[in-house]
Design goal:
Shape: globular
Protein name: O-antigen ligase-related domain-containing protein
Keywords: Membrane, Transmembrane, Transmembrane helix
Subcellular location: Membrane
Number of helices: 19
GO cellular component, one term: membrane
Largest sheet: none
Structural class: mainly alpha
Membrane topology: Multi-pass membrane protein
Length: 403
């Protein structure tokens, strides 16, 4: 017999993910998100959830930042401002409707995404089959609400995006999963790993092995390096002295050897750090530009409007940013930046407390979030906004229930 409640919960969590990184959803017009908002709103009311005072303060603070930016720049980008509030509301209603099981359901969805993506990933090595899916099947899943932009929209069947170009090695394919590119997939997988490590108290279990396999299949430079960091953090917290003092050096040394031995890892990082990529601003170049802009507007930031954020620049290469950390800093200023990441830390801390995990894991988790954000624009996405709202699910010292 179908469990309607659980199916609904999975759907709500999936929509958080989909509107954050699945091209069919997140690239569509904001109207699609607004219409979809009806589902979490209905479930929120039906389950008689209460609105937290914390959420009211949250919205008021966002409004203060927006009003401050409006008065500073004499501009009122209503669609941009409305879009942020819709994402905040969608995130809050969804996690409140689902409750503390949200993180477990998220892990399950990412595990499922790994399995489905590996099916398409393996097929991508057979050129004729890949071309058939790209040219004949993917067009059936196109979204008419998606407008053309300066960035290429890769063929997608919702469960998988065909953006598997080689990285350094021409024959090497990369697994994008359902997301816009492989590096993005690796970041969402790393969050799932963090959740499942805290929930299970283990690194070595079936779900985590599947998630790590997914990270490996992306061949994302940042993803692989962050995975090494995460494993090292976990081992540092391990009470087994043998694992802590023997395995940590082995993991670190192996990571260093791989970095200098595998061409697509080492050469890519060196290229990014040298700013020599002529196609777009690298994550390091983006950080440099963002910090310079931030120093001019440190309190309120420059907002998301193109006319204020990029000084009216419209050329695609000039406005390209792929460093999510510095991008968030320059958009909203230092105060909002610190509060945003403190709330993410607080969510992890309260999870660690409830699941009886070493509290230092929360600090390490925040570092991982910052590291994955260094190469992707994650933090304006609805799922990551939801992560800043997780503290409301663990307001009291209480046990985790399976309901």
């Amino acid at each position: 017999m179908l469990n309607v409640t659980k199916i609904t919960d999975y759907l709500l969590v999936y929509l958080l993910v989909a509107f954050s990184g699945v091209p069919f959803f997140y690239k569509a017009h904001i109207a699609m998100l607004i219409v979809s908002l009806a589902l979490p709103a209905f479930i929120f009311v039906r389950r008689k959830r209460n609105v937290d005072r914390f959420f009211i303060y949250y919205v008021v603070f966002v409004l203060c930042i927006q009003v401050g930016q409006m008065l500073k720049f004499y501009e009122f980008p209503i669609q941009t401002y409305l879009g942020l509030h819709v994402r905040v509301l969608f995130a809050y209603l969804s996690i409140k409707a689902v409750g503390k099981k949200m993180m477990t359901y998220y892990v399950d969805i990412l595990v499922f995404s790994v399995w489905t993506s590996l099916f398409f990933y393996v097929l991508s090595y057979v050129g004729s089959i890949e071309h058939f899916f790209e040219n004949s099947i993917a067009p059936l899943f196109s979204n008419p609400l998606i407008k053309e932009t300066n960035y290429k929209i890769w063929p997608s069947v919702i469960l998988y995006t065909f953006n598997a170009q080689g990285e350094g090695l021409e024959w090497l394919k990369r697994n994008s999963g359902p997301f816009w590119e492989p590096g993005a997939f690796s970041g969402f997988l790393m969050v799932a790993l963090l959740f499942n490590i805290i929930i299970s108290g283990q690194l070595n279990n079936k779900k985590n092995r599947i998630l790590m396999l997914g990270v490996l299949s992306t061949f994302s430079t940042s993803g692989l390096l962050v995975l090494v960091v995460l494993i090292s953090f976990y081992l540092v917290l391990n009470r087994d002295l043998l694992r802590r003092y023997v395995l940590v050096p082995i993991v670190v040394i192996t990571g260093i050897i791989a970095f200098f031995s595998v061409d697509f890892l080492g050469s890519k990082v060196v290229r990014k750090m040298s700013y020599s990529d002529a196609t777009y601003n690298t994550r390091f170049k983006s950080a440099q530009i963002d910090i310079n802009d931030f120093m001019q507007h440190p309190v309120l930031g420059m907002g998301r409007s193109q006319s204020t954020r990029f000084h009216g620049e419209t050329e695609a290469r000039a406005i390209h940013r792929n460093n999510g950390v510095t991008n968030h800093l320059v958009m909203y200023g230092a105060i909002a930046f610190l509060i945003y990441f403190y709330l993410i830390y607080l969510g992890f801390y309260r999870m660690c407390r409830v699941y009886d995990v070493n509290r230092r894991m929360a600090f390490f988790a925040l570092i991982i979030i910052l590291l994955i954000g260094f190469s992707q624009i994650y933090f304006t996405k609805v799922f990551f906004i939801a992560m800043t709202l997780i503290p409301v699910l663990y307001c009291k010292d209480e046990e985790v229930h399976n309901t």
